[in-house]
Write a structure and sequence with these properties.
By secondary structure, this protein is of the alpha/beta class. The protein has ten helices and 13 strands. Strands 3-2-1-4-5-6-11 form a seven-stranded parallel beta sheet, with helices on both faces. Strands 7-10 form a two-stranded parallel sheet. Strands 8-13 form a two-stranded parallel sheet. Helix 3 packs parallel to helix 4, helix 5 crosses helix 10 and helix 8 packs across helix 10. It is globular.
């Protein structure tokens, strides 16, 4: 099974390629934007280049690979609305067109985001919840999400959507809240700073380990009856537990045995999404996937990696 992964040089992409390299009968192809992109050396992985917005080059690259499955991780996390829509929507459309042309039976898993839900209340969020994004990024992912499922409805393409909640895992950057906290804790422990600088600590999020998530992505795209049970559907991937940022800090303090002073803005910012929690019923019923790595274990691994870097 030839599996092509976009965004292979990113945080999730690196874990995805390492996981695929261990799967028997899988030939992983990692798509990166250019030859100059930094990427890990992983045995058994073939690296190919194309920009999602360079339609001709993308078609040539995908045609040469002729994948059996595509896991679409690439995307723009921030920027102007125009830039977000161009990359996350137009880039996805180009990839879908290229994949279907190269192999009409190609399975495609488009990775969306829990940001499409916005604030859906305090109950666990099922995939049937209305999409009400509260950011430009969320709007771009909602459009990507809707368009991807439209390809199944209108063109009969074997396309499914994954909606991961808040990722955690070793070597996560400071653009993620847990990565930001862990990286600052490492700096404090090394005497490089004295306080945790955060915007707020009261919001609740559903944190899921990236290693659990990539396992779920592959289980979806490799389902023996993908067209019947997965195509045309969206799947949440979360822990099913809402945890506050203050609880994250308390857990880290318990792990390290050190208290940390938190420095917040004088005027607290608004919190448009006070809480999010995933309902994983659909993916569990479909493929049996459940998260296996507890949040405390994820944080311990993150702290260990940060202290070594």
């Amino acid at each position: 099974m030839k599996v092509l992964v976009t965004g292979a040089a990113g945080f999730t992409g690196g874990y995805m390629m390492e996981f695929l390299a261990t799967q028997k009968g899988v030939h992983p192809f990692a798509l990166i934007r250019s030859e100059s992109s930094n990427h890990p050396k992983i045995s058994g992985v073939s690296w190919v280049t194309a920009d999602l917005l360079d339609r001709d080059r993308l078609f040539d690259t995908i045609s040469a690979v002729c994948p059996d499955a595509i896991i679409h991780l690439a995307g723009l996390p921030s920027g102007t609305l125009d830039a977000l829509l161009m990359t996350n929507v137009t880039g996805t459309r180009n990839l879908l067109d290229a994949g279907i042309q190269a192999n009409p039976d190609c399975r495609v898993l488009v990775v969306s985001s829990s940001s499409v839900y916005g604030y859906a209340g305090r109950a666990a969020i099922p995939e049937s919840a209305p999409m009400k994004p509260l950011s430009d990024y969320g709007l771009s992912k909602m459009t990507q999400d809707t368009m991807s499922l439209m390809y199944h409805e209108i063109k009969g393409a074997a396309v499914a959507v994954a909606r991961p909640f808040n990722l955690v895992g070793p070597n996560q950057s400071g653009s993620f809240i847990c990565g930001r906290i862990v990286n600052q804790v490492a700096e404090i422990n090394q005497g490089q700073k004295t306080d945790l600088d955060l915007l707020e600590t009261q919001s609740y999020r559903d944190f899921i380990d990236v290693r659990d998530v990539v396992r779920g992505y592959f289980a979806l795209v490799s389902h023996p009856e993908f067209s019947q049970y997965c195509a045309g559907k969206a799947f949440n991937l979360g822990s099913g537990i809402a945890c506050s940022i203050s609880e994250i800090i308390s857990t880290i303090e318990a792990i390290t045995g050190n208290p940390y002073n938190i420095r917040l803005p004088t005027v607290p910012p608004p919190i448009p999404i006070p809480t999010q929690q995933s309902d994983n019923s659909r993916i569990t019923a479909t493929i049996g996937w459940m998260p296996m790595i507890p949040l405390k274990a994820s944080l311990m691994d993150m702290l260990d990696a940060a202290n070594k870097s």
